Amino acid sequence: MAKTEELSGLEKAAILLIALGPEKSSTIFKHLKEDEIEELTLEIANTRSISPAIKEKVIDEFYEICLAQQYIAEGGIGYAKELLEKALGTEKAVDVISKLTASLQVRPFEFVKRADASQLLNFIQDEHPQTIALILSYLSASQASAVIGSLAPDKQADVAKRIAQMDRTSPDVIKEVERVLERKLASLVNQDYTIVGGVDAIVEILNTVDRGTEKHIMETLEIDEPELADEIRKKMFVFEDILSLDDRAIQRVLRDVDNNDLAIALKGANEEVQNAIFNNLSKRLSAMIKEDMEFMGPVRMKDVEEAQQKIVNIIRKLEDSAEIVISRGGGDEIVV
């Protein structure tokens, strides 16, 4: 058998799968494309013997690459190289990183992932709202929500609007922002236009930020961008999120819901949501709703969505009046 340096990537992959055994290999196969599975299956079938030394080297190489990917995800290339040098030595660390960078697409602003919200806020709060929006679009929802919640009130809605309306950002713009922030990640930025932000991004952030910040941003957007605010609000709490409410909150919501709307809404709900609702109704009312659902026959999806949205609107209204609490990230305080 050849040395590992002489083996192709396909050969190494086949050796690794053989070493891992059939159970783990079958799990990996589930995540591969059909042509990849065919190539690997053929290579495994043609692999006659593997020396213990080769097997050990392939496993070690795989482990090192996985370790590097984990470090990159945590803090970027620089952080990964620093930790790998301590673990493997400078020469080996450079070798592992070089194997990854040819195909690896590292997201911009990875270096800020290790910063806490206060550090990050000091780092970017004086930047232009568009620059802040671009940076926050690349961060996790929890990190971005912590930053946006600490911005000046007049900046919060502006940044939220810019994130929601962001579509594609030129690599040159990203590089310039990183240059201004004195962080050189330009060589690792994907040269294709990168899709960031959008309504889904700001919804995820607003669902995590504290209620006061969310309310201020939404009220401002309703004045400045009513259509955008409506689109965001519709996505912020979907019907299935009723599972995040406790039993007392669900019972309070159901008191204001029309029985016919409830029956139609539940026609399109999954079993878990249906059970959460039925468990908070009286046996008599639960039986009546189930009977209505059975006898109403097929229902248009449009009608189901409208009925579900009515219930969502009731939930939002009850939250605004502090009659129920929607569980959120960021350590919301709940006062009974």
From TrEMBL:
Subcellular location(s): the record lists: Bacterial flagellum basal body; Cell membrane
- A GO biological-process term: chemotaxis
Which Pfam family, any one of them, does this sequence belong to?
A: FliG_M
Under Gene Ontology molecular function, one entry of this record is: cytoskeletal motor activity
Q: Which residues form the Flagellar motor switch protein FliG N-terminal domain?
A: 6-109
The family database entries (InterPro entries) matched by this protein are listed as: Flg_Motor_Flig (IPR000090), Flg_Motor_Flig_C (IPR023087), FliG_a-hlx (IPR011002), FliG_M (IPR032779), FliG_N (IPR028263)
Record-annotated Flagellar motor switch protein FliG C-terminal domain positions: 219-326
- Which membrane topology term applies here? Peripheral membrane protein
The GO cellular component terms are:
bacterial-type flagellum basal body; plasma membrane
- Keywords per UniProt: Bacterial flagellum, Cell membrane, Cell projection, Chemotaxis, Cilium, Flagellar rotation, Flagellum, Membrane
- Asked if the keyword Oxidoreductase belongs to this entry, the reply reads no
PANTHER family on file: FLAGELLAR MOTOR SWITCH PROTEIN FLIG
Family statement: Belongs to the FliG family.
Name recorded for this polypeptide: Flagellar motor switch protein FliG
